[in-house]
Amino acid sequence: MSETIPTASLFDPGPDHERWLPRLQRLVDEQTDLVMSLDRLSQLQSRAVAEGDPSGALEILAQRDPLVERMIEISRQLQPYVSESGGSPAPVRSLPPEPRGALQRRLSRLSEQLAAIAQRDHADKGALESMRAKVATELAGVATGRGVASAYQASGGSPQMQDRSA
Questions:
Q1: How open is the CA angle 106-68-53, to the nearest 5 degrees?
Q2: Is 80 exposed, middle or buried (0-12, 13-18, 19+ CB in 10 A)?
């Protein structure tokens, strides 16, 4: 169950890190879980694309939407902790070295994972666009073939073979 924390515009973590650090860690924990789930779905999506299953990829993409929406909300909630405001340093900078370093490493890993997901998604997008172009070309060929058949039928008959060597 996720804890709702006021958004950045309404929440000031203040200087007492003993009070807000557990809340920040819970947010980072939830964000980590969401990124791991998103990564698993991204891998499944890539597999569906590689197997030529665009409808499967789209189904997986739909499953990702609520995860991304929640990640956006958590990012908003993280802002007052990690962003500088009104010339004041970000509250995480006031943490003692040990928890600050651990938190920075976790946030850095999240950024790396998100970058890998974005790179994979970019490759999937390119593959899906290639599939779409191939299908469009095949459909154009089918339409041309139907046009030729229609031309024969419009001339009063069905296509016939002719011996032109005689």
A1: 115
A2: buried
159: which residues sit within 8 A by CB, 6+ positions away?
149, 152
Is the per-residue pLDDT at 2 higher than 70?
no
pLDDT tens per residue, range 111-134? 999 999 999 999 998 888 887 777
- The residues, ordered by sequence, that sit 6+ positions from 130 with a Cβ below 8 Å of its Cβ are none
**Torsion sign (Cα): 23, 28, 29, 33:** positive
Q: CA 130, 131, 135: angle at the middle one, nearest 5?
A: 120
